[in-house]
Amino acid sequence: MAMAIASSSSIREGDVVIVYERHDRMKAVTVRKGGELQNRFGVFRHDDWIGKPFGSRVVDKKKGSGFVYLLAPSPVLWTLVLSHRTQILYLADISFVICGLELRPGCVVLESGTGSGSLTTSLARAVAPSGHVHTFDFHEPRASLARKDFENNRINNVTVGVRDIQGQGFPEELTDKANAVFLDLPQPWLAVESVLICLRPNASCCSFSPCIEQVQRTCEAFRKYNFVDIRTFEVLLRSYEIRKEFLTDISVNNGEVEDASLPPQKRRRSDSSEKPRPDGGDAPNPSIGAVMARPYAETKGHTGFLTFARCQV
Known about the structure:
The protein is an alpha+beta fold. About 20% of the residues lie in helices and about 30% in strands. It has helices spanning about 75-80, 90-100, 120-125, 140-150, 165-170, 190-200, 210-225, and strands at about 15-20, 25-30, 35-40, 40-45, 55-60, 65-70, 110, 130-135, 160, 180-185, 200-210, 230-235, 240-245, 250-255, 255-260, 270, 290-295, 305-310. The strands form five sheets. It has a seven-stranded mixed beta sheet, sandwiched between helices. Helix 1 packs antiparallel against helix 3. The radius of gyration is 25 Å and the shape is globular. The two termini are about 30 Å apart.
């Protein structure tokens, strides 16, 4: 199984539940008998959650107005709520890695390093139910915390090891076993020889590096060991906000329409004559609503470079 939802459609004691308040405010909660969650929407008792299906809407019984949603901890949601022990990969990079490595059920994947387990969780789902992920981190406490997270989420196709892959390479027992390898290391070029030994013919490796100088040295190592189809990508994600607004939120200024919901320095104007009233009048009709789409004010920029290389047949 990939996540807890695969084993049960209803919430049980000990399950990890993603408490959804809004798209940018979620929290992972382990369900315990007698437990409570308190937030700005009210007080929610864990006992009321047990037995409900994932996706349920639960209401604060004291005030009766506040509510939250109880969602299953999918890899997508887990990436948004997990504890950041290291810098993590986000959805844009994760989806590109899974596609670029051509992962499918049954694949064996090697990963170094584990970090906070964001990518590992998605790798495990991509290769489930018959595939397996071997992930390694040189830091024992970090590896232990990641192992606990996988157990709590009932991810049973991941093995967490403690090993310095840059200095020692991957274990010998993984020789010629891997369908794909992912490297998130300060000096990934030091591990390329070990990657070659572990990869099956025509399999791929992906290396994530934040700096272009790291990419250059890694590509040199790939060429040295006769990897082919070496390509580097930078994935940038732009999110949009979609919401309905009414013309009561719009003001007219010198014949131009001004969106009053934006701060003054970001307000956009257009000729009001391009938006006539249905009845032919000159002023905006406050009863008319419109669906507005605009990019979020803050857009995440550079995260890192993804370099792919294929082992020759």
